[in-house]
Amino acid sequence: LGRAWAAVIAFNHRGQGAGEGLARGIYHSGSAPDLWASVEAGRALHPHALHVGVGFSLSGNALLLGAGRDGGAGTPDAVLAVNPPVDLARSVSRMERGLNRIYDRNFVLGVRRAMAERRARGELDPSMGVQLRWSLRETDHRVTAPLAGFASGAEYYQQCSAAPWIGEVEVPAVILSAADDPFIEPQMIED
């Protein structure tokens, strides 16, 4: 490749990192246009560099989804997706079983905290909240989907899962997933 240097541009999703409270809307697994904006910013800073998008978990799904569905402008030169839940409904179902319910509960508590912080900053209607008894599926249906513009959690899962689009990815792509990942059964990646 003849390149003697490398640079990393870290991207924080909406509501995360130094930009917390500045972005309109919420981050969700279909937020590929946000990722493409960061790739375009990287290209402006380093126009001759190879741009590789690396995403973990939901970000990996968003990279694959966008590379397959959107392609074209803003797409990185290659994609590395680590443990991407490429079928969101299947991943949530896996978290609803056995000891994986611990992860389901942890995600719900995280969303609950984030929602409370956003309400405190005046970014959300005070009545918008997450009940402790909800599962991640119910939280996605009642909170994530409506805030992201989807009619239901099922529609969010269907439209934001990368699985149907992976065959359309035209840049080199690698999916790395552990066989014992609590959210992603190996068959999901193989399919």
Question: Can you give a write-up of this model?
Answer:
It is a single chain. This protein is mainly alpha-helical and 191 residues long. It is 42% helix and 7% strand. The protein has 7 helices and 3 strands. The chain has a 3-stranded parallel β-sheet with strand order 1-2-3, with helices on one face. Helix 2 links the parallel strand 1 (52-56) and strand 2. Helix 5 (136-148) packs across helix 6. It is globular and about 50 Å long.
At a glance:
The chain contains seven helices and three strands, in the order H-E-H-E-H-H-H-H-E-H. It has 191 residues and is mainly alpha-helical. Helix 2 links the parallel strand 1 (52-56) and strand 2.
Properties at a glance:
191 residues, mainly alpha, three-stranded parallel beta sheet, 7 helices, 3 strands, 7% strand
